[in-house]
Amino acid sequence: MASHGLGKEQSIQEMIAKSRNKKGKKFIEKLMPIILVITALISVLTTIGIVFTLIFETFEFFQRVSITDYLFGKEWLPFSGSEPLYGILPLVLGTLKVSVIAAMVAVPLGIAAAIYLSEYASDKTRRTIKPILEVLAGVPTIVYGFFALSFVTPLLQQLIPSLKIFNALSPGIVVGIMILPMIASLSEDAMSSVPNSIREGALALGATKLEVAIKVVLPAALSGIIASVVLAVSRAIGETMIVSLAGGATPTFDLDVTGSIQTMTAYIVQVSSGDAGYGTTIYYSIYAVGFTLFVFTLIMNLLAQYISKRFREEY
């Protein structure tokens, strides 16, 4: 009887403990959605605040400068004492020069690395190489900038004697090296998601391993690969320190990649360093250029989403 009473007492204690645990779990279950909603709202509200700041300050800029002159002007001379000119096209062209060169470097190398990691490398090799490759993404961009200025530019000058110290070619190549891990990693993930049954079917039909990689796996993973390329190029468009250090500060409306250029981000850095007083037209031009850059990046991200949905293959 005593043991029966002891067992009954223990079971009651266990029931009380379970009841308390259930109450604690229910409280956490109710609390967590509230915390998650708050964190999501902070992100959304921060984004909205940034966008509205850009819009309001850009509107103030266009109160002083004609929007037509800004969008179609071919000269960017904001510091000209007599008649400042705010034509955005030289900055846009400088940004595109660097981005196109970066894409020409990163896309073939990144996709080649993805093909090797996905189709040829063993699991052990993949686990070793992929983290090392992704370390490039963690290198500070200012280090890349000094690398472009002090190593890549002198190296290129031996091949191209007319290349100036500040140019579009050197930062373009280094930006390409910087975005290469993004293309390689995301493309490899897309290619690895292709079912092995498709590879085995192609091999059974007599295709070589290279043919399987190029003609079967690559088209099957096309949506992920294109999305990775678009996202990487949008990252190149928004790059700041590399182009500021190695590109120069001369906005020019031409296709020459051997001379000094200025990108949209480099101009923002130049003015933000103290060259313009608060409330001046030059000060508000930072926001106009920033808003233009924001639109570029937004378009690139929307394009990546569209391509990803349009060409997605579901297995």
TrEMBL record:
One of its GO terms (molecular function) is phosphate transmembrane transporter activity. CDD domains: TM_PBP2 (cd06261). It is found in: Cell membrane; Membrane. Gene3D superfamilies: MetI-like. One of its GO terms (cellular component) is plasma membrane. Keywords: Cell membrane, Membrane, Phosphate transport, Transmembrane, Transmembrane helix, Transport. The keyword Ribonucleoprotein does not apply. InterPro entries: MetI-like (IPR000515), MetI-like_sf (IPR035906), Phosphate_PstC (IPR011864). Pfam families: BPD_transp_1. Part of the binding-protein-dependent transport system for phosphate; probably responsible for the translocation of the substrate across the membrane. Belongs to the binding-protein-dependent transport system permease family. CysTW subfamily. This is Phosphate transport system permease protein. The lineage of its organism: Bacteria, Bacillati, Bacillota, Bacilli, Bacillales.
